[in-house]
């Protein structure tokens, strides 16, 4: 006996149900992959110094973090920035100050470019407050000098900060930077 379910046979309804489950599974795997990919650009904390004592929660401090450029193997950017302590800072509700310093260096024997680089690209971005404030590290290519220039700044949804820092990594002319057109 063949039973109809919304215009589909029993087998057709089962097939539709299986297709939905497969699409859901594929979407879940894609989200997991993107999450793992984003986690690869996480900062590695190198150290910190305390600047203000807080009776409750962590102290205010300056942290130094290392970011490896995901498209240029052999370049690491070291960023120092203020972190707010206290109870709100400990639970992640405090807004960190916009002050940051950056120094990018060639840390490998040879620089290896993983594809062509755009003229300007937001390489790293990290939340610095619960609402809308982010720290950015932008890579720019100076083809005339065969140099990678890195800029750090913070922004908000409405208004960013003019405070910024810049550093440069010269690349030997024997290793031209592959620039995307």
Record the SSE blueprint.
Blueprint lengths: L3 E2 L2 E2 H30 L4 E9 L7 E9 L3 E2 L1 E9 L2 H5 L9 E7 L5 E2 L6 E8 L6 E9 L4 E9 L8 E7 L11
Antiparallel strand pairs: 1-2, 3-4, 4-6, 5-8, 6-7, 9-10, 10-11, 11-12
Describe the fold and architecture.
This protein has two domains: 4-38; 46-170, no CATH class. The relative contact order is 0.13. Strands 3-4-6-7 form a four-stranded antiparallel β-sheet, with no helix packed on it. A four-stranded antiparallel β-sheet has the order 9-10-11-12, with no helix packed on it. It has a two-stranded antiparallel ribbon with strand order 1-2. It has two helices and twelve strands. The chain is 19% helix and 41% strand. The protein is flat, with a radius of gyration of 23 Å. Strand 10 and strand 11 (147-155) form a beta hairpin. It is of the alpha+beta class.
List its traits.
181 residues, alpha+beta, 2 helices
Strand order of the largest sheet: 3-4-6-7
Largest sheet: 4 strands, antiparallel
Low-confidence stretches: 27-40
Question: How many beta strands in the DSSP annotation?
Answer: 12
- Helix % is 10-25%
Number of distinct helices? 2
Structural class: alpha+beta
Number of domains: 2
H and E order: EEHEEEEHEEEEEE
CA radius of gyration: 23 Å
Question: What is the mean predicted local confidence, pLDDT?
Answer: 77
Shape: flat
The first-to-last residue Cα distance is: 63 Å
Q: Quick summary of this structure?
A:
By secondary structure, the protein is α+β, with helices and mostly antiparallel strands.
């Amino acid at each position: 006996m063949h039973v109809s379910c919304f215009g589909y046979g029993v087998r057709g309804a089962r097939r539709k149900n299986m297709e939905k489950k497969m699409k859901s599974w594929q979407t879940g795997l894609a989200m997991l992959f993107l999450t793992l990919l984003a986690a690869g650009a996480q900062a590695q904390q190198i150290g910190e110094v305390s600047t203000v004592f807080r009776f409750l929660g962590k102290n205010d401090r300056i942290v130094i973090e290392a970011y490896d450029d995901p498209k240029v193997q052999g370049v690491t950017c070291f960023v120092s920035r203020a972190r707010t302590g206290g109870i709100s800072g400990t639970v992640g509700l405090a807004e960190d100050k916009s002050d940051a310093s950056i120094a990018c260096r060639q840390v490998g024997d040879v620089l290896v470019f993983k594809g062509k680089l755009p003229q300007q690209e937001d390489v790293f971005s990290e939340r610095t407050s619960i609402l809308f404030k982010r720290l950015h590290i932008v890579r720019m290519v100076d083809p005339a000098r065969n140099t990678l220039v890195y800029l750090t700044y913070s922004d908000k949804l409405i208004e960013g900060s003019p405070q910024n820092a810049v550093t440069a990594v010269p690349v030997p002319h024997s290793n031209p930077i592959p620039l995307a057109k």
